[in-house]
Design goal:
Layout (H helix, E strand, L loop, with lengths): L13 H4 L6 E6 L4 E7 L6 E7 L2 E9 L5 E7 L2 E9 L5 E7 L2 E9 L5 E7 L2 E11 L2 E8 L2 E9 L5 E7 L2 E12 L2 E8 L2 E10 L4 E7 L2 E10 L3 E8 L2 E10 L4 E7 L2 E9 L3 E8 L2 E10 L4 E8 L2 E2 L11 H10 E9 L11 E9 L4 E12 L2 E14 L4 E12 L13 E8 L7 E7 L4 E5 L2
Length: 455
């Protein structure tokens, strides 16, 4: 965050308030040496009532401007100088000392919104104390020392976002909120020791962003970096680099799960391509070491050594099908399941809920699909459909499902409504006496049991 030029919203021009030579006419009293009333011709409507010396406003007096502002206090050589009260046209009021037509010295201001500033002033702005400072459309409210933010305060940007905490030498030291780091970087989160630290989101001008943990100004800990031109990197970050276990989801439909070193695949990992899957060793982002490549149907195409992203041996593996994958595609290869969920609505004559689901399995055993639920209320059926995602464990036959947004809904009667979201956990069983058919049963996050089958 750059140091900001501190300007007060109380800015006013001495030349606007007073002409060095009085232009107008004396309408009463002695406007040369004494007490009188002088009406200015430019700007129209400005009137001074008070003491004069050698034809200048000098001593105690009252100045009323044409726009509704008013000053009551002392003058010297046609300028506000000394102590007085200046009421601005917008309702802001400053009480205190002036020097040569500028707010300077000890004083306090009460703004039209009720906010107060108090302390010593310089060049129309709070200099040391507690008050309000602005830079263009950005506003700071808090403690000030020698014209800089120093101590507790809140800095509000023109976009309405703000940072609240402790400042030193004009910069945020600790607290939380929004910080405009540069023209290319915006941050929302916590700050400690003058650096990004804790949980936060750093957004770049091209739309890329990191969301997660920070330490010492860097990505440090669990987080996710979204590169709009590449994809999403998630996992453990060390000093700004993805290092350790993590995942990558590319914009082109490819993905990776395994070990990283400085954003590159390094160690053991599994990469899903558009034409197959690689499972094995990586070095600096390239396949290197022992590895296996499977085609789209998860048939083993090659097993052996790799070097510099290429197959290092001439042999081709015996074509085999991973039995776990084969079973997964039998269960979730676009099959439609029908069943019921033991959910009823108290106080209404109706049956339990029926469900119909369709599942698809991905290379990494993640699941996508949709589900339609139907419930009967007073002998009338009502349905909703929503998307679902999840994953299947081929070793335990366990299933976890997450329900997404509704894609369609029927309006329920009597003020009832559908609740989106939720999750479910279950297991896959075979249908006794019917090989090739399966049952999925479990319990939702709301506690309702369910069972469905493709038989």
């Amino acid at each position: 965050m750059k140091s900001l030029l501190l300007l007060s919203i109380l800015l006013f021009s001495a030349s606007f308030l007073y002409s060095q030579e009085n232009e107008g006419k004396c309408v009463s009293g002695n406007c040369i040496d004494g007490v009188g009333t002088f009406k200015y011709s430019n700007p129209e409507g400005k009137i001074y009532k008070g003491s004069f010396k050698n034809g200048y406003c000098d001593g105690q007096g009252t100045l009323i401007t044409g726009d509704g502002a008013k000053y009551v206090g002392t003058f010297k050589n046609n300028k506000i100088h000394g102590k007085g009260v200046y009421t601005f046209a917008n309702g802001d009021v400053y009480t205190g000392e002036f020097r040569n037509g500028m707010i300077a010295g000890v004083g306090s201001a009460i703004y039209h919104d009720g906010y107060k500033s108090a302390g010593s002033w310089k060049d129309n702005a709070i200099w040391t104390g507690y008050g309000l400072l602005n830079d263009s459309s950005n506003i700071y409210k808090g403690e000030v020392k020698e014209g800089k933010y120093e101590g507790k305060g809140t800095y509000t940007y023109a976009n309405g976002k703000s940072f609240t905490g402790t400042f030193h030498d004009g910069l945020p030291v600790s607290g939380s909120g929004y910080v405009k780091i540069s023209d290319d970087q915006d941050y929302e989160g916590s700050v400690m020791g003058g650096k990004l630290s804790g949980s936060g989101t750093l957004t770049y001008s091209d739309g890329s962003f990191y969301k997660g943990l920070f330490s010492n100004g860097f990505f440090n800990g669990e987080g996710s970096y979204t590169d709009v031109t590449d994809g999403i990197y998630s996992g453990t970050f060390v000093d700004g680099e993805l290092t350790g276990k993590g995942t990558y989801k590319g914009n082109n439909g490819t993905s990776y799960e395994g070990n990283f070193k400085e954003y590159k695949f390094d160690g053991y990992g599994e990469r899903v391509y558009t034409d197959g899957v690689y499972k094995g060793d990586w070095v600096a982002g390239k396949r290197d070491g022992e590895g296996k490549f499977y085609d789209k149907e998860m048939n083993l195409e090659y097993s052996g050594k790799w070097k510099n992203d290429e197959r290092a041996e001439s042999q081709t593996a015996t074509t085999t099908v991973d039995p776990k994958w084969k079973l997964a595609t039998e269960i979730f290869g676009g099959q439609i399941y029908s069943g019921s969920q033991q959910q009823t609505i108290e106080g209404y004559d109706g049956s339990g809920m029926t469900i119909k689901s369709k599942y698809f399995i991905n290379y990494n055993y993640t699941i996508t699909g949709s589900v339609t639920a139907t419930i009967s209320i007073d002998n009338q059926n009502y349905s909703n459909s929503q998307s679902l995602t999840g994953y299947y464990n081929p070793d335990t036959f366990g299933v976890h499902l997450e329900f997404g947004d509704f894609t369609s809904t029927d309006t329920l009667p009597n003020g009832l409504y559908w609740i989106p979201g939720g999750s479910a956990d279950g297991e896959v069983y075979t249908v006794e006496g019917h090989p090739g058919y399966y049952i999925i049963k479990g319990k939702t996050s709301s506690g309702w049991t369910f069972e469905e089958s493709d038989y």
